[in-house]
Amino acid sequence: MRIGEIAALVGLTTRAIRHYHHVGLLPEPERRPNGYRAYGVRDAVLLARVRRLTELGLSLDEVRDTLRDDTGRELAEVLAELDADLARQEAAIRERRRRLGALLADPPGPAGPVSPGLAALLAQAPGTDSPSAAKDREYLPLMDGTSAAHQRLFALLGKAVADPAAAGLYERFDALADAPVHDPRVASLAADLMAAVPDELFAAIPEGEAVVPGFKEALLAEYTPAQAEVVSRLMQAFMERSRG
């Protein structure tokens, strides 16, 4: 059989068959003297099986693994494993739909879908028009996580932002927007911000938690020089306290 003939037989396109050759899923058959590939019945059986497996939703890598692992195994065993894999996928889809349904019933705010802990933290944030407060709310989803450790961190941060003094700290930070980097207010604000962080928060930071390389520089670039100096001092003090 030529490639067009075997493609029609197994219900595939010639382009798909050539791709299977390219990725090593289907061995290249011998060629006739005229250069055309000569396919046999075994090739058709293999291609039909590849088509059925891909229709079940398996990726080509998964198909390759399945075909390799099937050597000497009973078909019933292979199908049972495929069925179990599909059951896991169905369970994952049902969970994703459950979460999506919850979001549709109670649409998320401007920050988008967030964990319960972060949602509670954002609800506790002081009512202020401070630009820096708005920036904090925008950046908080970066550290969002569903682990118990992250939820504990958000609960502790909630205590800090709920403090009436938090709004005043934001106002002092905003006031540095046009200040030079060596403004004397920088050191005092950094110290006061650090003092506002609950002591329990340092113990709640997950072990091995590290700042992604380049993140500090990217974050500081979002602020004016004096504000960036405050954030830099705060981050440094935070790292030293968490290590201690």
From TrEMBL:
InterPro entries on file: DNA-bd_dom_put_sf (IPR009061), MerR-type_HTH_dom (IPR000551), MerR_fam (IPR047057)
Pfam families: MerR_1
PROSITE patterns: HTH_MERR_2
Alphabetical UniProt keywords: DNA-binding
CDD domains, per the entry: HTH_MerR-like (cd00592)
Positions of the HTH merR-type domain: 1-69
UniProt protein name: MerR family transcriptional regulator
